[in-house]
Amino acid sequence: MENLRKTVFIWNENYLEYSFPGDHPFKSLRESIAKKLMEERGFFHEIDLENAEPVTESLLEKIHDKEYIEFVKKKSLEGKGYLDDGDTPAFKGIYEAAILRVGGSVKALEMIEKGYDVAINLGGGFHHAKKSSASGFCVFNDVALIAKLAEKKYKIAIVDIDGHHGDGTQQLLYDDNRVLKASLHMFHRNFFPGTGNYDEIGEGKGKGFTINVPLPPGTADDAYISAFKEVVVKKLEKFKPELIIIVEGGDSHSDDPLVELKLSTKGYSEVIDEILSIARRFSSKIILLGGGGYNYEATARIWTITTAQLAGLDMSEVDLLHDCCFTSSTNFVKEKVNEVIKKLKEIHGLLD
Fold it and tell me: Is 165 one of the catalytic residues?
């Protein structure tokens, strides 16, 4: 077991209210399973618990239009219809549920500023929400908000390993050179959200501070980790982040029903180990946020294992939560990923 890192876990029982009705795939069951797994293993004897509070409207207005915020309030009262083109249904109380989860990410940042090494808000990670619209089950974008709040104090790197591209975060921070944005995601014709190709690199003073790693269906641990090391790690080493925000959607897992990436829990762990290595090298603080993940049991296992890693807990306590083995990509997929790596190295000046 390595040395414990001073870690805080942000929670509020009302997080469970952010759960879409009927057969909608986004359910708060993921968070509740993960917290139970952590409680069974005694995590909270070594990790502090902090209560999430709703984000203020004035903070929301730093990244969202006031008209859009008012629209969400109205739909929240009505409890019907959609907040976007059909992915994000309104239900009674969705405004209150959303601002509480975003407030949890703001609380995580506050805890970092108070001296914690790691702050965890699994209720966050709403990377699809845009300035004036909801998208992809996301109402308000906590990822971009806390980056904006923190960038005057820290050099920030966002590392998004959700299976879908973080298009809302990219849109809100596209011209920002204080925040490095790295997103690894499945990319294929007609796959949501349709953005995140390798040539989307930022604009204005933010040009070169957006790194998209578009991965083909079937990308497994071996090819994914290769892309992460060859592109993202090298870019992080050049950037030297002081704060790393991880968006850890569980939908890159091989058992996810909505995404066709093939990561195992062991693959996720290796990615987190690489991030921890960067954090140790540059004394970076870490905020872990949740994200997607539609196999609830697999997502909960991933989040529990990652929490143990980041906090420096006894990893033998989570051994039984791991998948049996690393996953392997086909030769066809490996060739596709190698092509992406080569293009990204050329674009971002990472050639050896």
Answer: yes
